[in-house]
Records
---
Amino acid sequence: MKVVDTSSGAFSIRDEGQGPAVLLLHGWPETAHSWRHQFAPLVAAGFRVVAPNQRGYDGSFAPDAIEAYSIFHLVGDAIAILDALKIEKAVAVGHDWGAPVAWTSALMRPDRIAAVVGMSVPYASRGPKPPLEAMREAGAGNHYMLHFQEPGRTEAELERNVSRTMRRILYSVSGSLPDGATWRPFVPEGGGFLDTTFEPDALPQWLSDEDLDIYIAAFERSGFRRPLNWYRNIDRNWELSAALAGLRIRQPSLFVIGARDPLLATMGPAVEALPRILPDLRGRHVIERAGHWVQQEAPEAVNRLLLEFLGGLPGHRG
């Protein structure tokens, strides 16, 4: 990792290879380490691969204000990183929260984002009302995203024992849960977010002790408050994005999700709608046995799909 100064701020990034650029954007609670399996295959295929720790994460620009984590700030960071690295165009690949950053970057800056890949979170057109408001009206007041809205509460819980936090979160939404066990996104009355999770008897095969230690060290250094601020801008993002309503992502696109990702239960309709709202969708793939951390749990399948997609883009054959 190296630190790069940009017009947004300083970002800790991993930058390897030469050739057409691929920008990898992680989710929550992850870091650039979540892309560890993608670097070698993409670099070997002739691509320049860039993965930042995003705003608020370990070693990167981390302002205090909640309002500083809107989707417009996050898209601005992605473009500022490309500027600082003198990259004219890149393919944006995002997982989890990184997927909305990638989708919105493609929507707002087609001059800089040549194509886009979303993992685990599909692109969705702007809805008729703020998302959190819609959740409350639907009676989902104990949804974890609503639980996250109170500053200080969840970060105190997660930071109490970062090792336990990371172990339980990474395991609980993975495809490694035993048959019949399902993570549910609802916080019990009087409980905390970790009460929705499971304690593993042992780490799943896709997550080594070393990988877990890297995540633990990162969040022990940076904490969870600023990454949680991304969630605290969900309704603000809706309010600010009115001018984007009706725009379409016309660049080549790809979507990947794990068959055992618990988000698939609620996001299934959005996944089904992708061919109707993405004019140049070149694939919509559900990877068997993988859960939410699809690029970590099924790296060979994800890398094959990425290389096939990149190889079909003009000027991106590596």
---
Amino acid sequence: MTATTAPTTAAHNTAKSHDPDAAAVGPILLSVAVFLAGWATSIAIWGIPGLYIPALALVPVIWVMLILISRG
């Protein structure tokens, strides 16, 4: 009984071609999921103030992010 293997080519060998953008997707999605879970927990604990106080606190953060994005 002989085992045959297909020759590996560059198109099939994706382990060595590592895309840094694809590697950053996991931590970003995890951070967003943790943030949303924390926000949902604050709503469950404190009700309506748990909904709008974090949103109000994020206004300056989003404002600075928009300025940074617009500057290039």
